[in-house]
Amino acid sequence: MQHSPETIRQFSGEETKRYSRQLQLPGFGVEGQSRLASARVLIIGAGGLGSPAALYLAAAGVGTIGIVEFDRVDLSNLHRQVLFSSADVGRKKTDVARERIIAANQNVSVECFETRLTSANALAIMNGFDVVIDASDNFPTRYLANDAALIAGIPCIYGSIHRFEGQLSVFGLPGGPCYRCLFRDPPPAGAVPNCAEAGVLGVLPGTIGLLQATEAIKIVTSIGEPMSGRLLLFDALAMSFRTIQLRPDPACPSCGTSGSGKLIDYEQLCGVGVDEVADDVGSMLPSELEDRLARGDDIDLVDVREQYEWDAGRISGARLVPLATLDDALDSFRGGREIVIYCRSGARSLHAARHLASLGITRVSNLTGGIVRWREDVDAAMPVY
C-alpha cells in the first residue's frame, strides 16, 4: 500500500492523542498512521489467534477490520479467546467481536462475515482487503486461505498453535513462498489434533496472534522486514524462538508453474468430513450404537482420545487406546469381534479405523461425530473437552 502526500490523513485532536506514541516513531509518523487508517485487514477466525490480533489492530488504528467467524462463544473458549467474557457464552462471536473492537476504538469500522470460509465465498469475502490474517484452527481453511489470498493478490499472515508451541510466517508476498511450498500435502485426517483435542496453553495464542498483528502493521505501513521466506518457531516452555529459511517451490501446486489458479474442495483435499462415505471402513451413528449396546451386542468399543479426555468422561463399556499407542495394541484387535472406534469429533477415530483396516483387521466402524455427537444425540450430560 503506497500513499501519495495528497492522501495523508488529517487526524483529529482525539486521534492525535490516541496514537501519539506511534506518531512519534521514526519512519512511522503521520504517514504510517494514515496508511493504517486506510487499511483493510481480514481476520479468518475470531478465536485464540484472531482475538488478540483484532484487539491490537483496532488499538493501533487500522481503519477496517473484517472478521470471518461462524461459531458461538463457549465456556471452553474463555481461557485464551480474550475478545469474550463469561457473559458472552452462547452469543455469536461476530456480534461480540464487533462490540469489543468498537469499544476499543470507535474510529475502526468492523465488517463481519458470519459464515464458514469456503471455496464458494472466499474470493468474494477477500475482495477489497489488503491483508489476510489466517487465524483458523484447521487444515482445510489454512489451505483455502492460502490459495484464495494468492488469487486475490494479497499477503496471508499464517499462524498456528499446538499445546505449548506456535508457528508464524507471511505467505504470498512477491518472490516469497506460500503455505503449500512449506506443507504441500495435508496430514492424514485426524493425525494432527486441534486445540479442542490436544489442548493449548492459554497465553500461547496471544503470543502468536500479536505477532500476526505485528506483521500486518509492518506490511500495511511498509516498515521493517516481513516474515516472508522465514518460518518462526516458538516454544513457550523453553521460551525460545527459532527461524527457518523458506524458499518458493517451483513445483508448488498453488504458486508454482503447475498451479491452476483455481480453488478446489479443501475438505476433500484434507480428508475431512468423509466418515459417512468412507468405503474402507464402516460408520455407525450414536443412536445405533446406543441401541446395540442396550441389546448386549458383542462390540469392542475403543476410545482413541488422550487420558485426560477419557478421565473427563467416556462411553460406558469402552476401553482406552490413545491414537499414538494404536500399533502397540494391535493384538487386542485381532480376535474377530466387531470394533467401533470413537474420539472427540470423529477425525482421529476415522484415521485409526482406516489404519486397522489397512492391516487386514475387519469389522471396523467409526462412530460418526464422535463423543460430541454422542452428547447431542444420546447423553446430554456427557462432558466433552
Written description of the protein model:
Strands 3-2-1-4-5-6-7-8 form an 8-stranded mixed sheet, with helices on both faces. The chain has 15 helices and 13 strands. The relative contact order is 0.10. The chain is elongated. 33% of the residues lie in helices and 17% in strands. It has 2 domains: 39-269, Rossmann fold; 282-377, Oxidized Rhodanese, domain 1 (3-Layer(aba) Sandwich). The two termini are 43 Å apart. It is of the alpha/beta class and 385 residues long. It has helices at 13-18, 20-23, 29-38, 50-60, 93-104, 122-126, 139-152, 179-182, 195-198, 204-221, 266-269, 286-295, 307-312, 347-358, 370-377, and strands at 40-44, 64-68, 109-113, 131-134, 156-162, 165-171, 230-235, 240-245, 282-284, 299-303, 319-320, 338-342, 364-367. Helix 4 (50-60) packs parallel to helix 5 (93-104) and helix 4 crosses helix 10.
Helix content: 25-40%
Write the CATH homologous superfamily of the largest domain.
NAD(P)-binding Rossmann-like Domain
Largest sheet: 8 strands, mixed
CATH topology of the largest domain: Rossmann fold
Q: In CATH, what is the class of the largest domain? A: Alpha Beta
Q: Terminal Cα separation, in Å?
A: 43 Å
Number of strands: 13
Number of domains: 2
CATH architecture of the largest domain: 3-Layer(aba) Sandwich
Order of helices and strands: HHHEHEHEHEHEEHHHEEHEHEHEEHEH
Class derived from helix and strand content:
alpha/beta
Biggest sheet strand line-up: 3-2-1-4-5-6-7-8
Shape: elongated
How many helices?
A: 15
Q: Would you identify the regions where 5 or more consecutive residues have pLDDT less than 50?
A: 1-6, 274-278
